[in-house]
Design brief:
- The chain has 14 helices and two strands.
- The protein has helices spanning 2-24, 37-51, 54-67, 100-113, 120-134, 154-160, 168-176, 182-188, 199-208, 214-220, 249-255, 262-265, 274-282, 284-298, and strands at 196-198, 235-237.
- Strands 1-2 form a two-stranded antiparallel ribbon.
- The chain is globular, with a radius of gyration of 20 Å.
- It starts with a helix and ends in a 21-residue tail after the last helix.
């Protein structure tokens, strides 16, 4: 009985703690302290995406890679320094993450408008939303008030981010560890309707798997030759149909065995994700609804709020 009561108290404490964090995040957090913050971020994101369409996917990915490693705290933006190793050189991030200069530019404008008020973590959350909208996707109200971490973890970045070789069970487990359901995972995977993947991340699928559409495979091989180390950083679209439009073609492609990554095709491979993937392929509005809800949920992972953390003046280093 005592053990059951202890567990009940533990669960109650967790729910109470979660409620406090949720209450500290709000959609109007900067209305008084930095009223132009959202306009500044949106304008900068639109300019960056207009200059290079791929940047929308890069900014969205930064937010994901931030939240999945010790929460949405801006730690992914920290540069290595003497005595400090950040997350940028982790295997999933090295030679892969992009958009840091865009974030730097946004931060500089915000510092001019309202010194040390808008956190780098919040910049990533808003820029992710604005990137999706700029490419034709859904909008949502971003909850704000995150604070920035002063530390980062290379080990956690190497271990917590789902690998492109993940099977369906691995994906479900990785998202579950962050408080996200299998349904959330399938919806969030739709972010791959934009962006590019490096050859090193799909070479094994291209040459060793039989489930990749033959015509797509033929078109990929010139840019991704078989010898390891050759063309590793050459990129190909995750969605070859509409590479720079946020739509539901990612799921349509999966139904045709055109998932570029092994982890992509796992969402339509005879498993528990098939039904939801099929539904999204024929219902873009349904996908958009679930995606926006999952993004809000993901944006609340492990946030630092209130008097904890800091608002970094420079997103690349702690104050």
């Amino acid at each position: 009985m005592a053990s059951r009561q202890t567990f009940s108290c533990y669960v109650t404490a967790l729910l109470f703690s979660a409620a406090i964090v949720s209450a500290q995040l709000s959609t109007d957090f900067y209305d008084e302290t930095c009223p132009d913050a959202l306009d500044i971020i949106e304008s900068a994101v639109r300019a960056a995406v207009s200059k290079e369409s791929r940047m929308g996917a890069s900014l969205l990915r930064l937010h994901f890679h931030d939240c999945f490693v010790n929460g949405c705290d801006g730690s992914v933006l920290l540069d290595d320094a003497p005595g400090f190793t950040g997350e940028k050189t982790a295997q999933p991030n090295k030679n892969s993450l992009r958009g840091f200069e865009v974030v730097d530019g946004i931060k500089a404008q915000l510092e001019d408008a309202c010194n040390q008020t808008v956190s780098c973590a919040d910049i990533l959350a808003v820029a992710a939303r604005d990137s999706v909208v700029a490419l034709g996707g859904p909008t949502w109200d971003v909850e704000l008030g995150r604070r920035d971490a002063t530390t980062a973890s290379l080990d956690d970045a190497n271990n917590d981010l789902p690998a492109p070789t993940s099977d369906l069970g691995d994906l479900i487990k990785a998202f579950s560890k962050k408080g996200l359901s299998a349904d959330d995972m399938i919806a969030l995977s739709g972010a791959h309707t934009i962006g590019q993947a490096r050859c090193v991340n799909f070479r094994s699928r291209l040459y060793n798997e039989t489930t990749l559409d033959a015509s797509l495979a033929s078109s990929l091989k010139p840019r991704c030759p078989r010898p390891a180390g050759t063309g590793d950083d050459n990129t190909s679209p995750l969605d070859p149909s509409t590479s720079y439009v946020f739509d539901n073609f990612y799921y349509k492609n999966l139904l045709r065995n055109k998932g570029l990554l092994h982890s992509d095709q796992q969402l339509f491979s005879g498993g528990s994700a098939d039904a939801q993937t099929t539904a999204y392929a024929s219902d873009m509005a349904g996908f958009f609804d679930d995606f926006r809800d999952a993004m809000v949920k993901m944006g609340g992972i492990g946030v630092v709020t209130g008097s904890s953390g800091q608002v970094r003046a420079n997103c690349r280093k702690a104050n």
